Amino acid sequence: MFNSYQRYVEEDLNIENSEKLQPQTNKHIFVQAFNPMLGKMEWKSQPEDYDYQQEVARAAFADMLHDSERNQLYYQGLKSAIEKKRKEGEKVHVLDIGTGTGLLAMMGAKLGADEVTAIEEFAPMYRCAKKIIEANGFGDKIKLIGKRSTRVKVSSENSKIEDEEFDMKERANILVTEVFDTELIGEAAIATFNHAHKFLLTKDCIVVPSEGVMYAQVVNSDVASKWNSLHTICTGNGELGTFSKLEPPSLSSDAESYSLALHDLQLSQLKPELFKPITDPIEVFHFDFNCRDGKPIPLREQTIRQGAVLKSGQCDAIFMWWDISMDLNQVSNRFRRKI
Ligand SMILES: C[S@@+](CC[C@H](N)C(=O)[O-])C[C@H]1O[C@@H](n2cnc3c(N)ncnc32)[C@H](O)[C@@H]1O
Fold first, then answer.
1. Residue 329 pLDDT class (50, 70, 90 cuts)
2. How far apart are the first and last CA of the chain?
């Protein structure tokens, strides 16, 4: 039997809170960072001249651009969505939330959408997207908005517009977005989807990806058992007496030497001989990003799942990963990321 799993929500990513904390007299900026001790994102205050280039370099935008499998699946999913809307006789308005380099928005423009709106909250990335979109000749086609999507308003529905330049005129009928992390929803994705459905999208919109499924599998693995415990480290190559061993301190039998922190890795690169499944993969959560039932995605949910034991053995780790469905017509067309 599995323990319960709880969805991560956006309290700690709430940009409004960070701004409330900002001192009035001393100019500082807030930078989001992963705290490995707590296993979650938090905001850190930095001086105003903080070098954002490092943040952008570490944020793996280049990796995403080179992930051709991911990009092709997004392209196919978006193409199907645009064709469907065209067949239904609708004008196509694509919204890309979290545009990053502008990639998905430019796909929408290339696929002939009538209108494309791209939103990016991270200012250095917003500036980057602006340059990239213009350099690719889509400057007139894509409207780029530099704020968090949950602050964007549709002007036709608001009599009092605070900042007219930065709002959408109409709701979009296609949402394409990649606001996922290794835990799928850890970047406050649920709040982003719920807000978009309520304020930025038409009732009959198509969302790419349309759904996400999170899996868990209990495994026996000597390698995995070392990811969260102290073990001997060998340094040097033994020549000229450089070989040495760093032994962990000996602990009393009742002392805990384990950390329950998440360990991220590309699961598909872990050789099958390095683990033995104790259970089959078990579906833990299912998310309908289209909200077809008309209800918001729950912000908090717990689930208890039971799975048959395949063989006995020590349970060293629970592997978790997720799939997302890119194409409404081909639910099997899934993009997979690991935890
Ligand atoms: C994983 S990257 C994806 C970049 C790009 N869309 C791609 O597929 O290559 C996610 C981006 O979304 C931005 N982001 C996440 N949530 C957002 C939101 N609610 N509103 C605006 N930007 C958001 C982040 O700052 C980041 O640049």
1. low
2. 20
304 C-alpha to ligand 1 centroid (Å)? 31
Separation of alpha carbons 94 and 207, rounded Å: 10
Q: Are 199 and 267 in contact (CB under 8 A)?
A: no
CA of 332 to the centre of ligand 1 (A): 25
List 121, 178, 183, 211, catalytic entry = 178
Place of tokens 């081909």: 330
**What CA–CA distance (Å, rounded) separates 37 from 47?**
24
Q: What is the pLDDT of residue 260?
A: 60
Ligand 1 contact, 125 CB (< 6 A): yes
Beta strands, E only, 211-310: 211-220, 233-235, 244-246, 276-277, 282-288, 302-303
> What 3-state class would DSSP assign to 28?
strand
Count CB-CB contacts under 10 A for residue 162: 9
- CA–CA separation, 270 and 291 (whole Å): 34
Active site residue 157: no
25, 171, 267, 316 from 271: Cα distances, Å: 55, 46, 9, 16
Q: How far is the CA of 103 from the centre of ligand 1 (A)?
A: 11
| Best residue for ligand 1 mutational test, from 99, 125, 201 (most atoms within 8 Å of Cβ) | 99
242 CB-side CA count, 13 A: 6
pLDDT in tens, 145-165: 999 999 999 987 765 655 555
Element (H, E) at 129: helix 123-135
- Percentage of residues in the chain with pLDDT exceeding 70? 75
Distance between CA atoms of residues 137 and 253, nearest Å: 66
**Nearest CA-CA partner of 200 in 77, 84, 95:** 95
Distance CA 111, CA 105 (A): 10
The pick from 55, 58, 121 for probing ligand 1's pocket by mutation, whose C-beta has the most ligand atoms within 8 angstroms, reads: 121
pTM score of the predicted model? 0.78
Tokens 């308003």 appear where?
153
Establish whether 120 is a catalytic residue.
Answer: no
